[in-house]
């Protein structure tokens, strides 16, 4: 661990609300952990892309684009479930295991949040108005 925090580390600490002088350890991730990390990132990006298509694309607001968002949300769930199965048996490095479990927990929270939003919209709840700044994410936008 380093006692000196560089500017990128300080920015990350600020976003998290942690003290700027928090000691930081830079490590190489195991290839297997990286695979699941990347799969989670790609699944979230796929959902984001479907969300933009629903909001701004040529068929914005269509049932088809709404269903695409739901499918991509379920794809994120599947990737998180696959990562969870892997992480349960990963014993090489407990710190990396905790990190992937944290990402899995965040992904599952995101999936459930959107499931509830979709259910409200399908139920005809006129009060469904989503501000994307309030929507949870697996990865921060500036990661």
Descriptive overview:
With 143 residues, the protein is an all-alpha fold. The protein has a domain at 30-122. Helix content is 64%, strand content 0%. Helix 2 (31-56) packs antiparallel against helix 3 and helix 3 runs antiparallel to helix 4 (94-122). The longest helix is centred in the last third of the chain and has 29 residues, at 94-122.
Low-pLDDT sequence parts: none
Q: What's the total number of strands? A: 0
Secondary structure class reads mainly alpha
Q: How much strand content do the residues show?
A: under 5%
Radius of gyration: 18 Å
Q: How many H/I helical runs?
A: 4
Overall geometric form: globular
Largest sheet: none
Please report the distance between the alpha carbons of the first and last residues.
21 Å
Assign a percent range to the helix content: 55-70%
H and E string: HHHH
Mean pLDDT: 89
Protein traits:
single chain, 143 residues, mainly alpha, 4 helices
Outline the secondary-structure elements:
Layout: H1 7-16, H2 31-56, H3 63-88, H4 94-122
Summarize this, please?
By secondary structure, the chain is mostly helical. The protein has helices at residues 7-16, 31-56, 63-88, 94-122.
């Amino acid at each position: 661990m380093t006692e000196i925090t560089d500017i990128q580390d300080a920015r990350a600490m600020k976003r998290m609300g942690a003290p700027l002088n928090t000691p930081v350890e830079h490590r190489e991730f195991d290839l297997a952990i990286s695979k699941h990390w990347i799969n989670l990132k790609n699944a979230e990006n796929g959902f984001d892309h479907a969300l933009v298509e629903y909001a701004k694309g040529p068929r914005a607001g269509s049932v088809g684009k709404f269903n695409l968002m739901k499918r991509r949300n379920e794809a994120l769930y599947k990737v998180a479930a696959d990562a969870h199965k892997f992480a349960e048996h990963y014993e090489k490095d407990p710190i990396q295991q905790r990190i992937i479990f944290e990402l899995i927990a965040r992904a599952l929270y995101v999936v459930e949040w959107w499931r509830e939003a979709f259910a409200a919209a399908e139920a005809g709840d006129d009060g469904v108005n989503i501000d994307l700044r309030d929507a949870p994410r697996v990865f921060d936008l500036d990661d």
